[in-house]
Structure formats: C-alpha cells, structure tokens
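Limitations
The structure tokens in this dataset are predictions for the assembled complex, not deposited experimental models. Users should treat interface geometry with appropriate caution, especially where small molecules or nucleic acid strands are included. An illustrative entry is reproduced here so readers can see what is and is not provided.
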Amino acid sequence: MMPRDLPVVSAVVEAGADDRIFDSLLLIGPLVIGLIVILGRSLVTEAVAIVYIATFVGYTLYRAIRE
Amino acid sequence: MNGSVATVGRDLGRILEALGGLVIVSLVVPVVWGEYFALPALLVSALVPLGLGRLLYRRFQGAEAPGRFHGMIVAASGWFSVGLFGSLPFFLIAWSVQLGVPGFTTPAQTATLAAFTEPLNALFESMSGFTGTGLTMTDNEELLPRTLQWWRTFSEWVGGVGVIVLTTAILSRPGSGSLTLYESEARSKKIHPSIVSTVRTIWWIFILFTFLSILALWLGGMPIWGAVNHGMTGLATGGFSITDNSIATYDSVAIDFVLIPVMLLGSIAFPVHYLILQGDLRNFYSDLQTRWVFGYMGIGSALLWGLLYFAGPYETPFAALRYGLFQFVSAATCTGFQTAVDATNVALGRWPSYAQLTVTFGMFVGGAAGSTAGGIKLIRGLTLAKGIRYQIADVFYPETAVRRLEINDRRLNEKEASREFIEAAIIVVLWIVFLVVGTFLLLLTLPSGEYSLANVLFEVASAQDNVGLSSGITGPESLPTIGKVAFLFHMWIGRLEIIPVLVMLRTVFKRGGLYQ
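Predicted assembly:
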C-alpha cells in the first residue's frame, strides 16, 4: 500500500495544484502547527515555521520562473 | 410545487447534515481545553441539524436535480438554516453555564456569555459568523469559553468559502445540479470542468493558505491560539477575533503588517490562486480583478493615509500609514479586523466623517468575485464603470458602427454588453436601496443624537457588505432589537448578493397568499 492510497493523502493528492511539493506542504501543515502547540516558541519551532513559509514562497517563484 | 419542495428539501437536508458534521468535528475543542461542560450542548447542537438533515434527505432522496430557481431557494434557505442551527452552540452553552450541567464543573457566568441566553443574540452571532461579517454580540471575546471562540472562528472559516461549496466537496454529487447550487452561492468561474473537482481544489487552496497564515501570524508574535483563530478568520475575510479589542489588543506593527497580505489573499479569486500556484504569476496583473485588488487597495489606502495625516487625528506619517493602510485593507477585503480603537490610538467611530466615508466606500466595493470577500465585488464595479463609459461614448459613433465592450479579456458584443451592464446595475441599485433603507431604520430606532449619520451608514454598510468593522453601534445592549433583526437581513442578503433572498421571499409570500 502506497502512502497516496491513504484516505486523507489521496484526497489531498487528487485535488489542488497537482504538485508534490504543494501537496506535501498541505499534509505537513497540521504537523508543524501541532509541533508549535506542543513545544511552544523556540528557535527550533521558529526555524521550522520559517522553512515552511520560505519553501512555499520559494517554490511558487521557482515554478513561475520555470514556466 | 411538490417537486420543488422535494428538490429544495433534499438539498437543504444535505446542507444541514454538513453543518452537523462541522459541530461534531468541533467536539475535539472542549476535550482539548478541558471544557467538558460544553460537550452535552455541542452534542445536541450537532444532532439536531444532523437528524433533521438526514430526515429531509431520506424523505426527498429521489427528487429532481435543482434548476436555477431551486438553486436560489436552496442557497437562501440553506444559509438562513445554517445561521439558525449554527446558533445552537452559542445558545445551549450559554444556558449550560447559566443553569449548570449535572456531573460537570461549569465556570462562573459572565455578562459576555450571558448575552447568548437571548436567542436573537445567538442567532446574530451565528449569522455574522457564517456570512463572514464579524459584527458581534459579545462585550469581551476573551471571556468566552474556548469552545465558542473556536465555533465563531470555524463558522467564519467555512462560511468564507461557502456552505454549498463545502457540501458539494464532501458529498460529491456530480452533475448540473451541483453547478447550479455552486453558482447560486455567488460564484461563477470553475477551476476544472468538474464541479466536484473545482470545489475540492478551492478547499485545497484554502486549507494550504490557512496553514501559511497561521504560521506567519505566529512568527509575527501572536500566541498560537490567537494565530490559529486570526489566521482562519483573516483568510476567510471574516474578522471575528478572540480578543476584546480585535487586532489592536496585540498593538504590534509586525502583526498588523503580516495580516495585510493574509487579508489580501482572501480577497483574490480562487481560480486566480490556482493559476498562480501553477506558476502563472502574470495573473497578478493580467487578471482584471486581481490587478484592481492591488490598485484599488493602494489608491484607497493612500487617500485614507492622506486624510488621517493631513486633516485627521494622527500626528506622525507612520501612525497614519499603519492605521490607515490596515483599516482600508481590512474594510475593502471585507475582513473587519480593527486596529483603530481608543485603547491604543483613535477609534474608527471617532475618525473624521470623510475618513469614515472613505472606509465605507471601501466596504461597499469589496474584493474580487469568486473570493471570500463581500461587497458588490470589484468586477461588478468595473463592469458598471466601463458600461457607463461605453453607453456615453455610444453617442459619438455612427449608428452603423460595430462596437465591443472589453471586460477582463472578453470582447462583448452590444447585446452581451447590455446584459452584463444591466445585471451589474440591478445588483448595485438594490444594494444601495437596502443600504439606504437600513440606514433610515437604524436612525429611527437609535437614541437621537448619540450617533452621527456617518456612524450609522458605516455600521449598516459593514453589516450588508459582510465586513464587521464597527463604529460602536453593534452590541447586545446598544443595538435595538429592530436593528438586530435588520442586520440579520443585511448580512444574509449581502452574502448571497441579494437576488436569491428576494426570490425566496417572493416565493414564500406568494405561496403564503401574502403576495399576488
């Protein structure tokens, strides 16, 4: 069984922008927020949040340039 | 007639089932926060719409697919029903705390929560939430149980995209019936040929942007519970807050400036977001509405900044920029977050009349059609402006001239141009009529001399354009009962762009014998 066969994952993969990175960001989002809820504000959690947002912005720009 | 009742009943049942599902999902909040006293009330609030919805759906399961007429009735009655049944958590939790729940420890009753023991206040809060308005019957949101803070946020988040979009996404009934319902909820453009794929992609985009908004706000300095709530209501351009003074509570320049792009994201149409995620950034300027989202927000904010700095209450250019920019974007995106309050600077209601009217104009026009924003929508305003220019210029051309009206890369012939112009004009005229009637009504019912005409017009526009900014009139005590009922109507027609509600009321009155 592949991860994309799981109910939530398959729903995310089938909808949206048909892109693995964006799909991954969507699936990881709740985990990042959950991590912040559990660990609170720290250098690590702030870095994770920054990386999450930077990945989205950077990848959107990358796709635009590639287009 | 029976066929119509069956079609409407079946789809209304589906919407109520979806609402019941939303309340069930929310059961996790009182468990996480230890507010166990809210569980029985929330469970009842879920079971009532779920049971009624199931009953309606089973009874009318074989009904025909909805036509345009049915779509409008379903949209109007569906949104009213969602507002009505969505008020149950407010009402029942308030009474649970008031009377106590056997076997559970309940907190002390507060004046804020006690306001919801009045059914009208609970209905107002629910309707304000689902329509994405954000006007509130609470005195101090911080004192509400976390469960109700969440329910307010969740209702705005879902309402921002639309209950029919949600129902279609979950229950995935393909075909022309779903498309008709989708269009009756003030949406027109599809992202994919399939309507089910379209609504699922809308939710995909919306959820991804919600995570980004939450994390950006948290990085801006907001505590995580505040970031979750404000991220959701900001992106949904709803504007409910969990703090007493809205965003002004944080009094943070960073948070103010992080929220501006969040609100702007909410006011851009989903099909444009989709294209941008596909790498087509040209849509930021090639799409007429998106271009104008930035152009119109920029011009409006600059004007408001000038008014507030050169003739208004702020003494430094940066203070005028900070509050002027935020409040214009908050108004024009129809979000309704407030940073201009007396606790930190100068309340909106005490801004000069011309500044308040500038903000009112921002609310009136609103964001892009196909986004979560309210107002008459940019495309309608632009169609009207271009249409008027087209009609006037017609005089200067010979009668045999073949002319085209260009709107958003579409070249309309005379007949098409005339039809689109008339459709836009009808909505705008009705919008203004209801705005004026509402203003008269409120002026008649409010204590004389307490509020200026600018204050009253501002408040009515805020309700009808689903914004939620307040000049201080809305509140459990300050707004008279007639005003509350009128605002319920304004919020309802504002969310559905008037026509579906009028069609439903005409049908009800005609069949009830009140209208011939």
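Some entries come with short summary sentences. For this one: The two ends of chain A are 34 Å apart (CA to CA).
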